[in-house]
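*** Backbone structure tokens ***
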Amino acid sequence: FFFVCAMDPPDPLVETPAPASPHAGPVLSHVTSAIQRVSTALHQSLGLNATMEQATSSLWPITSGGSEHTFACQICLGLEHIAAAYAVQPCQHTFCRACLQGYVTSQIQDSIVAIQCPSMGEGGTQRCTELIAEDAVLELIDNVEVVRKFKRFKAARENPNLRECPKCEHPQVGSPEAPQMCCAGCGAIYCFAHSNAHPPEEPCEAYEARCTGPDTRELLHEQALP
């Protein structure tokens, strides 16, 4: 007698898993690693775009969680910690203290003492008309020589008859009607109009005629030739 063991036929609706390939493990690992790299790059790109949008869309301190911690400086265009901020009064435009200090210093070096706020507005086309107060200028500057220049230029701007001795820089008030000046500090003689450009005994008219004489005109003509 022969005994036949009957077996149920396979269900046609259920797929039988294929035998695993010996190369499937490394391939899956490479694919997973590539997906992770793409995901990381995407997150970094989104973060950078968000940072640039914050820097360009707002000129005021950026808030996070209800507390201000960074701001966009309108001079260097960087995002800085609020501790480095300096707000110009009364317009409240905010800059890095170091950036504003450099701007104020450059203005003074150019003999400008009525220093405007450097803000150009959100569109970059509307210059702020507020002047930085004198006490704020002196607070920002930490260079003694620059402070001295600011005070000298400001005094000369307020009094057009103020002159400085070319020898000792002592300031004193003169008059165009009496051009010869004697320094109260060192006794040096100099001219109200021309400082020490000509000797004290030479009148201003003679000096000006000498400067505009034919020799000078010829020299200027030669220098102007290509």
The beta strands are 62-64, 67-72, 79-81, 85-87, 94-96, 162-164, 171-173, 180-182, 189-191. The chain has six helices and nine strands. The first helix runs from residue 24 to 57. The mean pLDDT is 77.
